[in-house]
């Protein structure tokens, strides 16, 4: 069912799906840069949610501010306010009846949000899944590049227009330069599943390797042939790995 969560005057749109059981574990799914919760059946998060439902898990997917059906302007999106979105979704999820355990799953930039949210709320998150987490966004911001577009990192523009016409705010770039990604993430000591494709041309797999180095209980899967979206033949393997990790133990 559709749900609406308010965060600082903005309405965030989400989709909550639960099994027909008295109680259940639930997975919060977080999408990547310029993405959405997965409205197409072929979308990564939509297919992950379907696989999790078949295994008896509940899911809640949502659009970050300025994305999909959520309110806000994408040009005002920043990593800090996406983390605030995530905190609002976590608070909403914790208020639901019949919840046993809460898991977090993030893809790409959503993986960075999920990793930091788990670091801020380690007692609330039972397991964490990071798919191609885009922690290199900080490295890129310090170098002055975003999705192939270059800018002066020492004189950040008010806005930056990407090749596809997407307008990114300068404050996004500024906050990305100093974001304490790994410093916050390492406060999470629970089980972590890291997955990264060896053919990912968007986010270098060094990001997942760095996460693996700071976590106490993580497993790292380098998926042969997988791109950033884990498409085609590697999609099935991805779904199986994620589902197995969350339902076991």
From TrEMBL:
Residue ranges constituting the Serine aminopeptidase S33 domain according to the UniProt record: 25-143
Gene3D superfamilies: alpha/beta hydrolase
Entry-linked SUPFAM superfamilies: alpha/beta-Hydrolases
GO molecular function: carboxylic ester hydrolase activity
Pfam families for the chain: Hydrolase_4
PANTHER family associated with the record: ESTERASE ESTD
Protein name, UniProt field: Serine aminopeptidase S33 domain-containing protein
Organism: Pediococcus cellicola
